[in-house]
Amino acid sequence: PRPHPTVRVRPLTCTETRRGDQQVVHSLGDGAVHVSAARHDATFGFSAVFDAGASQEAVFEGSGMRQLVELAADGFSCTVFAFGQTGSGKTYTLMGPLAQSETQPASPALLGLMQRSFTCLLEQSRSRASDLALSASYLEIYNEQIRDLLSPGPPCALPLRWSKTRGFYVENQLSVEFESLETIVGLLLQGSQRRRTSAHALNRHSSRSHALLTIHVRSRAGWWGPKHHPPVWALQAKQGTLCFVDLAGSERVKETGSSGELSVEANSINRSLLALGHCISLLAKPRGKRTHIPYRDSKLTRLLARSLGGSGITLMVACISPSSRCLSETLSTLHYASRARRVTTRP
Q1: 3-state helix, strand, coil in the chain (%, to 5)
Q2: Is residue 288 a known part of a binding site?
Q3: Computed over its alpha carbons, how large is the radius of gyration of the chain?
Q4: Pick from 151, 157, 69: which is nearest to 113 by CA?
Q5: What is the mean pLDDT of the chain?
């Protein structure tokens, strides 16, 4: 199968409206999105396009996220990642409002793909006769260092290893078992509050790291062995994963007004996103014409190697701004998502 890129167009912000920015992105229906501005007139096709009026529930149901949860419960390796310019709505799409906490939960209607997927997965766990064991790990990649967002104490860098059986993996990361919605949402909010964010000219809550929350789903499905006399009850173990990747936003340092540490962070973010884009471009080529895929160019591409071009099933959510001022970044994101449509995997 191929990844299923979907596009979400956020509303114009109050600042953009006051500034007089024009809306240059329009949904045409049936998965088509049109960009019209001076010297630019282009139409792109995707699995689905969600305009500014789309609810969080509509994005969950229309993107195929529910099917992805079911596949993870069946033992497949599934990934959803949100990408796009800084301030385009990636974290909101995945998590919902930034202001939520354990003591101040978000309105149910505003909950993002993550919380809705947790609910769906726990329903799967209760409805299946098989024994599903659920656990979660939560990491961030900040300035090319991998840090555990669930471990107590100040975050410290964790080593990234490679093995023939596991591929790339993070050594010593904490994995926490959970059985209730309250527990996993608590872990999500706890980890998100430890994640690096900063304010700059384009976004008051800009994510300065890539975050990866992975749900591990272990199931033990029982069956009767028909060839045995008497029949034997056997157990077959399966392990699926559901990984949510909230990529830090691409940005132009000149437009954000970043300097010092913020500028170093931006350069690190842009380098890893460039490495990701390069891998996707090469994976989009026909198998016979592919050269070496440089997964080792960044920590991000190493961790996403299996999801991008190997045995995984991937949902991509491209988040864009409709503002004329963001035109070049919007076109870049749409081209990025279009290339991703041509990647094939073998789950």
Answers
A1: 35, 35, 30
A2: no
A3: 21
A4: 69
A5: 86
Is 90 annotated among the ligand-binding residues?
Answer: yes
172-207 pLDDT, tens digit each? 999 999 999 999 999 999 998 888 765 544 445 557
Residue 258 marked as a ligand binder: no
The answer to whether the annotation marks 87 as part of a ligand binding site is yes
Query: What is the Cα–Cα distance from 269 to 265, expressed in whole angstroms?
Result: 6
Tokens matching residue 12: 């114009």
C-beta neighbour count of 345 within 10 angstroms: 18
Q: Which residue has the higher pLDDT, 263 or 274?
A: 274
Query: 203 Cβ partners below 8 Å, 6+ apart?
Result: 86, 87, 249, 256
What the block records as the tokens of 307 is 């999801």
**Neighbouring C-beta atoms of residue 61, cutoff 10 Å:** 13
And the tokens for 183? 């527990």
Residue 2 predicted with pLDDT over 90: no
- List CB contacts of 238: < 8 A, sequence separation 6 or more: 74, 75, 218, 219, 220, 221
Q: Is 89 annotated as a binding residue?
A: yes
If you ran DSSP here, which 8-state letter would residue 58 be given?
H
Residue 299 annotated in ligand binding: no
Q: What is the CATH number of domain 4-99+110-198+206-222+233-341?
A: 3.40.850.10
On the CB side of 272, CA atoms within 13 Å amount to 27
| Tens of pLDDT, residues 279-332 | 988 888 887 777 789 999 999 999 998 888 767 899 999 999 999 999 999 999
| Token output for 328 | 């070049």
Q: Which of 333, 115, 134 is nearest to 241 (CA)?
A: 134
